[in-house]
Structure to design on (559 residues):
């Protein structure tokens, strides 16, 4: 009995020791835990803002917190592209208890769903079937209220373009994973993917006007398409850039390649007599030719196997201004002969007409220029044959000519600082060229007289060229018609370049097809740009413009 009593006492003592040990261990663990928490609290309290922000960025990247893709905005902060959350409606057919009852409930919310297709999906052996790719938040709530079993609502992100086709070639698009694959979306993919917004130089209102007016003319003349650029003549900011046909950016993956092709920046074309502006500017800058020197254009010019003719023959010798106003191929060829191939190619290079644009788009075309230095090549390039450039290249060269000769590079970004670009032509040459361009529109013998917009001193140059055949040679009955212009010519603010591809009809020259578009564009956009009309009584009407004598078809008539 005493032995048992002793044994019980030992057992009780051991139990007591174990309990004390457990309490000691628990106390130690609690002490360590509270000490750690206290230390971290004090440490975090001592962190500065920069350290906290850095730590937060690190957590974001490691925990896969992906920001919404940044927005694309126009120059007035109007939304051009954004990302939204969307929900898709899916179902597990294996969990559907009553197929007919489920169909009735679904059609109550989505009456356009077809019973046959729903029946086929709900009787499927699959465990995941999509009913609708996108549903609205209101539809989502309605589904929850009806309590349909087996439904699965999945959320995802979608890139949308609120203005549909507006500036679609500029904006580009993203793929199914949200990565930029064209346009601004591709060029600035990393920036946008990081959640940063981008503002571009496009003016949505002016973009819409350019597209509407250009499309009207394309439809009127049953043309294949066209392109247009409206650009600041001083800093190169592009206010509007249109390529037609265009497309709804929200349906990018369903489109054909011809709609996706950017005619304004990627397509290269022989733009005809618009290149005579460059020929005239080079001649005046070279000091080899005086603006009053005359060139006999009364007979066709035979060079090698080629005969150069004028569309409107003249029977007398004409000056440089008259060569441009009358758009004489013969006169332009003879001018180019005087300054030669090396000088011609040097200026084409300095104007950027032999290289891709530095524009912020991946869709850029490389000019095609014959550089064999043969006399015939030099002559034909002088009036736009043997050189293929994009319409945006032409807009850039036009801006350089009228901007006191300082090179202007097109940009789709808003520039906050003045760039010091290279001087290509002297101020005097630029002044002469502005005056000549004004005469092309204002003179009754000018090829672009239909571009005249009362009060706005438009100047420019037309170009009508046979369309090149990819197989070689030219299509004799297909034209590319172009007008590159600026306004107001006494102090050029904006460049407007319009190109229309293969217009139909008996009158399909640039003067008939492209010039009227510029007239309408100027009248519509000038008030938006706060450019007021001028009259002959205005103080600055004749400032920075020179007077040249331009004769008509009859040699003695000065107009």
């Amino acid at each position: 009995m005493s032995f048992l009593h002793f044994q019980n006492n030992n057992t009780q003592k051991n139990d007591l020791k174990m309990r004390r040990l457990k309490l000691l261990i628990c106390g130690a663990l609690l002490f360590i835990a509270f000490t750690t928490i206290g230390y971290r609290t004090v440490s975090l309290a001592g962190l500065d803002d920069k350290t906290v922000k850095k730590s937060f960025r690190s957590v974001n990247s490691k925990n896969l917190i992906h920001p919404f893709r940044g927005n694309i905005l126009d120059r007035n902060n109007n939304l051009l592209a954004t990302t939204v959350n969307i929900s898709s409606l899916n179902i597990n057919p294996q969990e559907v208890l009553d197929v007919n009852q489920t169909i009735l409930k679904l059609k109550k919310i989505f009456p356009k769903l077809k019973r046959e297709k729903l029946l086929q999906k709900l009787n499927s052996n699959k465990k995941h079937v999509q009913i609708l790719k996108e549903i609205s938040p209101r539809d989502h709530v309605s589904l929850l209220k009806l309590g349909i079993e087996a439904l699965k609502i999945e959320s995802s992100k979608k890139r949308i373009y609120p203005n549909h086709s507006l500036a679609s070639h500029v904006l580009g698009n993203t793929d199914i994973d949200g990565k930029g694959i064209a346009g601004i979306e591709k060029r600035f993919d990393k920036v946008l993917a990081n959640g940063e917004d981008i503002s571009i130089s496009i003016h949505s209102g002016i973009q819409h006007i350019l597209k509407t007016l250009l499309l009207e003319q394309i439809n009127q003349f049953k043309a294949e398409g066209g392109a247009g650029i409206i650009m600041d003549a001083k800093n190169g900011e592009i206010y509007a850039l249109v390529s037609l046909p265009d497309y709804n950016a929200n349906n990018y993956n369903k489109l054909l390649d011809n709609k996706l092709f950017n005619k304004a920046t990627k397509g290269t074309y022989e733009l005809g007599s618009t290149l005579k502006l460059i020929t005239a500017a080079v001649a005046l800058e070279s000091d080899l030719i005086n603006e009053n020197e005359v060139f006999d254009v009364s007979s066709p010019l035979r060079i090698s196997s080629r005969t150069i003719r004028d569309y409107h023959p003249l029977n007398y010798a004409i000056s440089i201004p008259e060569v441009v106003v009358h758009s004489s191929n013969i006169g332009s060829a003879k001018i180019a002969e005087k300054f030669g191939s090396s000088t011609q190619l040097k200026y084409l290079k300095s104007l950027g007409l032999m290289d891709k644009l530095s524009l912020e788009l991946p869709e850029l075309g490389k000019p095609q220029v014959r550089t064999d230095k043969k006399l015939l090549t030099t002559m034909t390039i002088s009036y736009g044959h043997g050189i293929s450039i994009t319409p945006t290249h032409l807009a850039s060269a036009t801006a350089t000519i009228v901007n006191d000769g300082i090179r202007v590079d097109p940009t789709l970004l808003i520039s906050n600082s003045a760039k010091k670009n290279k001087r290509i032509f002297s101020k005097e040459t630029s002044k002469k060229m502005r005056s000549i361009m004004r005469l092309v529109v204002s003179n009754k013998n000018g090829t672009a007289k239909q571009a005249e917009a009362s009060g706005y001193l438009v100047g420019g140059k037309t170009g009508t060229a046979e369309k090149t055949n990819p197989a070689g040679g030219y299509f004799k009955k297909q034209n590319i018609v172009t007008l590159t212009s600026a306004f107001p010519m006494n102090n050029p603010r904006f460049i407007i370049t319009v190109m229309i591809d293969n217009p139909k009809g008996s009158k399909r020259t640039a003067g008939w097809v492209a010039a009227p578009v510029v007239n309408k564009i100027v009248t519509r956009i000038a008030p938006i740009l706060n450019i007021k009309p001028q009259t002959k009584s205005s103080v600055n009407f004749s400032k920075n413009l020179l007077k040249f004598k331009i004769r008509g078809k009859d040699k003695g008539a000065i107009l």
